[in-house]
């Protein structure tokens, strides 16, 4: 009997009944999982570290938590359903517009690259870990999957250039259902012993999964959209009905063909995210919250099932196996997938360096190990510890090295000058247009659809509709070329929150907000962004001037027309906003740190309408061309 079972029997003998024990166990999973993510955020480390450590401590080390006794036969169906919801949420984050640029490489990564990874990993497991051919093939299939929940934070931290971010996001989501089916088919081949028919079985299974998953996923997504579009589902039930449909689609697909459910819900998420008939931001935000809870719970439960004795038996050959996955299998898969694609070698090298594993691999290892041990396969007990070693090792290696490697390869955004505007009001649009005219990238984010719609009509292509303060927003806002944030909403507190939120991405020195609208809105400096522009320029005053006909103008300075001459010309009424340096850099005029523009630089300023009207025609300095 396990230590956890002994603890359970002891608790019952002390008067804790089964209901109380189950309640205590469930509460422990929720509390420990969320607390681990919270602590990880505080100490700035990947949450998977603490989740695995706490799971081990709560399970095999102390016996406090016994997932098998807690859930019984419902454990692995619950795990499968949770993974389905996680992949559905992942599908919601994918935008099909990028496929025209990354489609070819992506197709190869999830086909040729997957097969190359499977082959290399299987051979390494056979030669290094002492597994027989069937177990080697199975663990190779399990480890072709990626870790989208790990990839996302890495990409936010590194901010790679070009289409690297989209490629890794799409691969991380699509490879999971395909890899799961591959592992299931290998598992079935092992059980039935039909090794001669393995290739035909795998090809047939993949085709059936694509047909069933695509068809049912498409129909399920369209049904949800149709009902919401026609008002047949009340607003407060949008999330619940969508979740219900995900569960139905997953279960129905699995009944039609085993393990087609994950591909089905992934397709369903992609279609819902990319349709234009309804707004789904609230659905995405709900699924983001639910996914965070599920991921933490799954890692706690699965790591609590680990046998410490199996972990301690892993020797140096296991570390060599991990090295093969990182330094041989992944680079080989990427080399084959990108051959002839025209992708620059630096981007190919970065792709070859990023391939973490996550919750899907952990879930598969736990499920297959239990089934195979019941069928009398002694080596099945090694599947779980090896898989968790790979998960932990990949997170450590990639977590510590991805950013330095990206900088070395020059694929990380180096000193980006662009601006993310929180708020897409006419004021934000006017500022963004002035910067775009100077060749500086901009992105407008707003939860007000009218503002976003107006911005798109005015030609702003990089916009984001939704709450920019959610974790999901960091994955979906296009920050290519963006290096700072301007919080420009009418709400002072919202501006402060936005500046603090994006300070994690851009740094506190590049997080700006407008000065508060009222004197009693004083804020503690470390709980807000830097105040930009002038102290007498709150949101309502700047918006009033824009509405009254004020213009944002860019003026070149020279030895003959320096900053003093500029101020004199505009009667000292011009409000300096930015300075564009001779090298194209953007300097922001802050309330407490005014700049000293020099000849050769360009100053962007707000000119009041009455000053524009009074300006003498033909005497204004010529505006320089946009860089």
Automatic annotation (TrEMBL):
Record-annotated membrane-spanning stretches: 21-41, 48-65, 71-88, 109-129, 135-154, 174-193, 205-228, 318-338, 350-370, 382-400
Major localisation: membrane
InterPro entries: Cation/H_exchanger_TM (IPR006153), NAD(P)-bd_dom_sf (IPR036291), RCK_N (IPR003148)
Name of the protein: Uncharacterized protein
Domain Cation/H+ exchanger transmembrane: 35-408
Domain RCK N-terminal: 420-509
Topology in membrane: Multi-pass membrane protein
Residue runs in coiled coils: none
Taxonomy of the source species: Bacteria, Pseudomonadati, Nitrospinota/Tectimicrobiota group, Candidatus Tectimicrobiota, Candidatus Entotheonellia
Protein's UniProt keywords contain Transmembrane helix: yes
GO MF terms, alphabetically ordered: antiporter activity
Keywords: Antiport, Ion transport, Membrane, Transmembrane, Transmembrane helix, Transport
Protein localization: Cell membrane
